[in-house]
Amino acid sequence: MIPELGHFALALALALSLAQAVLPLIGAQRRDARLMAAGPGLAIGVLVAVGAAFAALLRSFAVNDTTVSNVVQNSHSAKPMLYKLAGAWGNHEGSMVLWVLILALCGAAVAGFGRNLPSGLRARVLAVLGMIGAGFLAFVLATSNPFLRVWPPAVDGQGLNPVLQDPGLAFHPPLLYLGYVGTAVTFAFAIAALIEGRVDAAWGRWVRPWALASWSFLTLGIALGSWWAYYELGWGGYWFWDPVENASLLPWLAGCALLHSAIVVEKREALKTWSVLLAILAFSMSLLGTFLVRSGVLNSVHAFANDPERGVFILALLVITMGGAFALFAWRAPSLAPTGLFAPLSREGALVLNNLLLCTIAAVVLAGTLYPMFADLMLRAKISVGPPFYQATVFPLALPLILAMAAGPLMAWKRAKPWPVLQRLWWVAAISFGAIALVWLVQGKPVLPALGFGAALWLILGALADVAERIALFSRPRAALARARGLPRAAWGGAVAHAGFGITLLGMAGMGLATERLTAVSPGESVSLGGYEWRLEGVRDVTGPNWTSRRATVTVTRDGAPVTVLEPEKRNFALSRQSTTEAAIHTTWASDLYAVMGEEEGGRATLRLHHNPLAPWIWLGGAFMALGGALSLSDRRARVGAPARRSAEAARA
Amino acid sequence: MSASTSRRALLWAPLGLAAAGGVGFWAMLRGMKDGSYDPRGVPSALLGKPAPALTLPAVEGVDTPGFAPDALASPGSPVLVNFWASWCVPCVVEHPQLVALQRRGVRILGVNYKDRPAEAAKFLARHGNPFAGLVADADGRAGIEYGLYGVPETYLLDGGGIIRWRWAGPMTPDTLSAELDPLLRRHA
């Protein structure tokens, strides 16, 4: 009964979404206030309906309802509750329901928080969100119904891929979807602006918080996914330039460009056409990622079950949304006249450079991701585009971007002079060059890690220099604290996010110096790596709730002093006849000691040991970037209504 | 062309690019249905053709014999040809699957790719030896003839010596159950 109710709720949500797509739009065209006012109510109705469907799905997984085909395929009664619930969105059908739920949440948020928006703009934004929601709900109902029943009921579920039974992965998809779907809202604003033919500072102020929120969630989602790959896959790497990883990086890059160009729209009313195009591109990249991952056109460890039928449906959605949006853009964009002018050397100029470089990186990653597929299609050639390609193309583009990241915030709007910027950054540059030289001298050959350390320091210290300048720390230190308190949160956010990227670079540079060793040892034997002695004490059997494992005990010492005990294991999941390697990681913050257990043969165990300098800072940097986004989001100016409401209240008083 | 018309043309460019991409994806999906497009790394050049002969010596220091160049011509029953190396980490990941296949009675011929014989022998002593025959491709020439993508890489030959399947990268338990086992049954 409950699954049928869930199914019905989805159908109801589709009907409401269709109404949301049509009524407010007609209302906005006819300037009919009553039709426009239907939008918010419908958006909240869609949220309630999709929420009910999602709750029904969660319940089916929680009680292990084996008459639901999705539960049978993806769950098992012996699984811990967290993974039963996470299993609800760990598969194609359930994850689509989560996707639609988040979209409905965004729609309701626009309806709820958007009271200060011009009513026409709000109606059109809600209508576009309604169209997207209707498209995806139709997709779920037509090709991926999560509530399909099986009869007779199965004895028990068939389990979930054990690699996916992990807290990191339980929260990775929701965060990533929050990011993906957030781009749908900026997209809706872009389309609404194109229909109205008007982009102004208010539009920029409205788009920026959504772009910021979506970008922050994408940052967290990507960082969490990368961390998961690092500790769970047991390969010792953190980013593999896998097509699915690239699919999440593309909207991140486009969103990052958008949230910077939206600043220019807000402050200077320039870059309007460009910002609208970026908003469309960011959502297109999200949809493209969905298509690539779920249609089976590419080969990846992360891809969902392949089904060309589904692929055709998503492609149709993609063609309608992107084709419609780009056609509307080509038709209406000429009416968006730029007003603010600026010199090449200015804050705007730096932001344009940032946009160009980010978009070029995105284009390179997109080309690297799609090229093998198109080469296969047209030339019948199997080509793999791997890390060497991305390293050769992305790094040279990232370098000027990093240089501009520290200098840009110190430049004045409209027209900047080079001398004051240099004056404030010379010590940062000197320390960075010193670090490059030092690392290069100590470590020898590889140039890239040394450059990475220099770039990281440049960004972190550059962010410090920026804050110091704003609060006049050096010129008038006494009032600095008061000024720091008065500094807008957006300025803090920008500095924290830029420094966060520097911290991530620091971790990446450290990983560039990582060492590893594959070895077979008997109990009692030890090997040395990275200045540590690693000694295998023994291997024993361990039994968990739905697995058995062989667990090794490795004691790590440095100069005779104990550091830690690592327990890597190899788990066997009897039910799915799969085994996973559970890497053991000990972090000293200066480095990660990382051990993976391999096969055993004749009393010897294969161990793969890694020494990863500064590794944890890669993901901590990601957290800092998201924190920067959140700080910026909490700025009073981001809540558009605040000043308007206050002045209205003042007028009333 | 005046500046404003070229600007207008530029605004249409995203639509044009997206349309071209859309047509490509459509062709891929069509190809997946009729089998002409397969994202899972199969070289169209060798599939359905006789496997290139391997004129290579046995690996020194390993008990496993080599095999004659015509061993692949018509083996009589399905055979796997596995390219591997002791220096390759994914090969360690794949090895348990090869051992499991051998225990189930599947004949596996190994090609030790650009490896030192002593290292290869140590690898097999440590991880088990699933190979019925083993040859050394010291300079990687056989790899070029097969259009090798990397190691490990596995080819399935049917009883007539025709290449039916190719897997680039390590075979996982999933690969065996989802891809290889149905093919082994079909060609047995």
Would you kindly provide a written description of the structure presented here, covering whatever features stand out?
The complex is a heterodimer of chains A (653) and B (188). With 653 residues, chain A is an alpha+beta fold. Among the domains of chain A are: 165 residues, no CATH class; 100 residues, Tick-borne Encephalitis virus Glycoprotein, domain 1 (Sandwich), CATH 2.60.98. Chain A is built from 19 helices and ten strands. The radius of gyration of chain A is 27 Å and the shape is globular. Chain A starts with a helix and ends with a helix. The C terminus of chain A is likely disordered. Chain B is an alpha/beta fold. Chain B contains five helices and five strands. A five-stranded mixed β-sheet of chain B has the order 3-2-1-4-5. In chain B, strand 4 and strand 5 form a beta hairpin. Chain B is elongated and about 75 Å long. The relative contact order of chain B is 0.18. The model of chain B has no long low-confidence stretch (mean pLDDT 83). The interface between A and B is large, with 47 and 41 residues. Chain B: It comes from Muricoccus pecuniae. Chain B: Its main location: other. Chain B: InterPro entries: Periplasmic_diS_OxRdtase_DsbE, Redoxin, Thioredoxin-like_sf, Thioredoxin_CS, Thioredoxin_domain, Thioredoxin_ResA/DsbE_sf. Chain B: One of its GO terms (molecular function) is disulfide oxidoreductase activity. Chain B: Belongs to the thioredoxin family. DsbE subfamily.
